[in-house]
Structures are given as C-alpha cells and as structure tokens.
Amino acid sequence: MPRPSQEGLRPRPVEEEEAVETVGRPRPDRIKLGGEVELDDGEKWKVPYWQEQPKQDILALHEDGPLSSAWCVGYLQKRAGRSRFRWTIRYFELKEGHLKWWRPAFTDQIMQPRPPKVLKREPRPKPVRDLDLRELKSVTRAKVRFPYSTRIILQFKEGYTDYQLELRSESEQEILAWYKIIIRFTMERIETVVDREGPRVHGDRDSDTDAAPDRI
C-alpha cells in the first residue's frame, strides 16, 4: 500500500483554511444579530439576541422609569430643628435628583393640596433648601404607632452636609409614595418601630428657637 507523500500531510496555510466555508454554516459577514440568516443549503437560522450588546438606555429598568425623571411635589411636615414636638408644614418638590422646599403662607397651608402662591412669582423664589439626593447616605423609615404611622429620616454623606431631614404626613399613603421614590437614591435602608413621639435619633445643628430660618 503506497504511503502518502509528505506534501499531502503538510498543514494548509491559514489563509487557505479561512477561505474554506463550512457547509451548512453561515458566513460571519452574513450574520445580523437578532435577525435571520440564510445558510448555503437554503435553511434559515435565527441568530440569538443574547449575542447583541445591551443598550445603555435599557439597563436596570425600573417600573417607575429612570431615576433622572423621578418627580414628586406636595405638602409635608418636617421636624423643626431638634424640637421633640414641633413640626412645620413646607411645600416640597423632588425633581432631577434634587429635593427642595419652600415656606408657604398660612392661607396656602389651609388650602392644601393647591400649590402655594409663592411659586407663582416670576422669577421663581429661591427654595429654603436644595438638597442633592445623589449625596444621600441612608434613609430610615420609622413606624410610629402614635400619633402618625410613618416618618422618614434622610441622612447625607459627611462630606456634603451634616443636615438631617425628618418628614411625616397626615396621609400614610402620601408619605409612603415619597419614601418609595427617595429610597431609590441610596442602598442603605433602615426600619425602626417606636411606640410614641420621642427624641430625634441624632441630628443637625438647628436650635429649637428658629434662630436660623434657612434651617427650617
């Protein structure tokens, strides 16, 4: 039996191997991710969608939409300084990752939920405070059995501000709607349960005398 020549055993050059098309498989230049390609024998083959790179605008989808479009407005009660019992009514706006509030007139507080007249001025007045929620460190949900059921406490990163904001509402549904939005800005969530009104956890440098109006 004749032996094969050494030339027949010589490996083919790379360019020759690339030039050979495997029968029944599509050529790479014919592949369109997420679509269909036609094989040499006429059979159609669906390309898996997982081969396509995910788009940035669909990563980490949320049922309420992207975080940049989170929006909420309304009247809430905030603790006044370090007072154990005193709360003030303010009109809050959460927009584009910033939490702002204004001091409404007494008549506006009575006419809730209508927005305060102060926001209708041109130019729009500067808010009492403007907090960047991207600097939010933690959110604490305190379930108080009396007199209000839920309060939320916002603490920010040390390098941003030492201000601590505590909020509540006469409507449980309303404060939970705010809580649902705010917790999206931080990974640290704390839940506590207290029986009655008590002292603050620990807070800002505000006094109970309202000496600094921009702090309330």
UniProtKB/TrEMBL annotation:
InterPro entries (UniProt xref): PH-like_dom_sf (IPR011993), PH_domain (IPR001849)
Compositional bias (Basic and acidic residues): 24-33
SUPFAM superfamilies, per database record: PH domain-like
Region feature Disordered, mapped onto this chain: 1-33, 197-216
One Pfam family cited in the UniProt record for this chain: PH
Domain PH: start-end pairs: 69-187
The name this protein goes by in its record: PH domain-containing protein
